[in-house]
Amino acid sequence: MLILDHLAVAGTSLEEGTASVEDRPGVPLQVGGKHRRFGTHNTLLGLADGVYLEVIAKDPDAVPEAGRGWFGLDQFTGPPAMEATFETPHGLRVLT
């Protein structure tokens, strides 16, 4: 069984991705955090029942501890794009 964990919008920069999301519903996102292991940072919008929308991008000031970025962000180009992350009995699974 798949349970929606969160929606993620990948951007080439956090500013670009956040602006693209904030422009649509007109709701500001909150500053999230940094993921040192993967060299990313994010902004967040709480939805309902613990589900949230995350804008994520490579952090230009970070070097990933894991040696690579998350969600293929090392090779990501183009306009912001959405992915969905689901919780499964075997952990999290990303669907694009």
Short synopsis of the structure:
By secondary structure, the chain is mostly beta strands. Helix content is 10%, strand content 43%. The radius of gyration is 13 Å and the shape is globular.
Task: Present the secondary structure layout.
Blueprint: E1 3-10, H1 14-23, E2 30-35, E3 40-46, E4 52-58, E5 81-88, E6 91-95
Parallel strand pairs: 1-4
Antiparallel strand pairs: 1-5, 2-3, 3-4, 5-6
Q: Which descriptor suits the 3D outline?
A: globular
Please indicate the percent range of residues in DSSP E strands (runs of 2 or more). 35-45%
Structural class category: mainly beta
Please work out how many helical segments DSSP would assign.
1
The ordered string of helix (H) and strand (E) elements is: EHEEEEE
From the alpha-carbon coordinates, what is the Rg to the nearest angstrom?
A: 13 Å
Which assembly state applies to the chains in this document?
single chain
* Count of extended strands: 6
Instruction: Give the termini distance in whole angstroms.
Output: 18 Å
Main sheet: which strands, in order across? 2-3-4-1-5-6
Largest sheet: 6 strands, mixed
Low-confidence stretches: none
Mean pLDDT: 84
Helix content: 10-25%
Please give a structural write-up:
The protein is mainly β and 96 residues long. It is 10% helix and 43% strand. The chain is built from 1 helix and 6 strands. It has a 6-stranded mixed beta sheet with strand order 2-3-4-1-5-6. The longest helix is centred in the first third of the chain and has 10 residues, at 14-23. The protein starts with a strand and ends with a strand. The model has no long low-confidence stretch (mean pLDDT 84).
